[in-house]
Amino acid sequence: MSAPQQTEAIVLSHIDVGEEDRIVTFLTRDHGLLRAAAGGAKRLRGGRPAVFDLFVHGIIHFHVSGKEGKLTRIRSAEVIHPFLNIRADYGRLCAASYLAEVTAHCVQEADPVPSIFDLILFCMGQLESGAEVYRILFLYVMRLLKELGMAPELSHCMVCRGPIEGEALLSPMDGGAVHPACARSAGVQVLQAGDMAFLAFAAKRRIESLSNLKPDPESAERLFQALHTFAVHHLGFEPRSFKMLGKGT
Amino acid sequence: MTMRYPPSLALLIEELKRLPGIGQVNAQRLAFHLLDAPPERAEALSRALVEMKSRIRKCAECFSICEEERCRVCQDPGRARDFLCVVGSSRDMIALENTGQFRGLYHVLGGVLSPMRGIGPEELTISQLIARVESMGVKEVIVATNLDVEGEATSSYLAGILRERGVKITRIARGIPIGGNIENADQVTLGMALDGRVEV
Prior knowledge:
The complex is a heterodimer of chains A (249) and B (200).
Chain A: E1 5-17, E2 21-28, E3 32-38, E4 57-65, E5 71-81, H1 90-106, H2 114-128, H3 133-147, E6 168-171, E7 176-178, E8 189-191, H4 193-203, H5 217-235
Antiparallel strand pairs in A: 1-2, 1-4, 2-3, 4-5, 6-7, 6-8
Chain B: H1 7-17, H2 24-36, H3 39-55, E1 57-58, E2 65-66, H4 72-75, E3 80-87, H5 90-97, E4 104-108, H6 126-136, E5 140-143, H7 149-163, E6 168-171, H8 187-195
Parallel strand pairs in B: 3-4, 3-5, 5-6
Antiparallel strand pairs in B: 1-2
Helix pairs in contact in B: 1-2
């Protein structure tokens, strides 16, 4: 058994095992994705189920045991922020679920990416505080693609190399913006001139200043849809929660 | 050389492994237990499985499990038909029914809203719940979904759509379990216990 360790973590998903236990998938600041057994997590008395609930941000104390160090067990945990407002609104639950699903797909075990940890925490905080859902989703996907080195090229047309001015198409196949006349593949998303300019501007901003960026709701939804299509192509993954966005909110 | 199980035993092990929480070792243990048991024991298990699958259906009114057209609670003329308790699953309904505290009717949603598992409002019996509330003259709907993120979001969603229909919506209480210690409770539970305090 390894020495006890601790890290800041956010719960991305969990599955119930047996009567009282859970396998919890955390995004941690220091260890990347971490899947760990939380014994008795569902127990009402002394099980502290709230600590292992979805999207809860906290500190976890764990140790690794078993052959080849494959079994991680949670010793204890404390809540830093439960993001209670997310659970009070189905639309926010859908958005938070999207963030969790995509993040779990992009981060590997034992490969910490503190910038992505900060990003999801920032976005959960924004959802908690009532920010417009598509604005947060747009900022998240834009920033995530940048952190993964997959950000779309926006400065010039990916086909003819000419400058992008006015309306353009975001082409996942070509890896960025293309002129309408140059489009040659399916799945391209039309972006108006204002959307393109906003996207190029937002892509250069630091995470701390993202909360000041407030595109109108229609523009934020268009930008998110375009970036989502781009991300699905490059990540090779479509989160289930995407289909739930915008339903019943 | 690797020793292989006879085909019929291997098939049973494979089927047992499909059950939740059963891995290879547990499946082998159960299969060998059944192999060593008297034949009538295995036959009884087999019969119980087939009968359960052929007899159990969903109640036409509340969607809980039963063996008739309507479950015993829905058939009971002594139940208050203007009080509806909404639960996620039949297991939750049975747990609440075992308290003996509730004399109204139930409505089983068949799960809770869970975007990550692809479960939205259309996948649950929400439209049937609305129809029941409107046709039965329900005065109060008690939402008794789990107190986790998805159960709470489901409760908020239901409150939003039912409130428009002029029905009183209540939520089961949240807080410290009976016999629990305050010092051992997490801060979320404690905060909710304070929020939900009652005059004594």
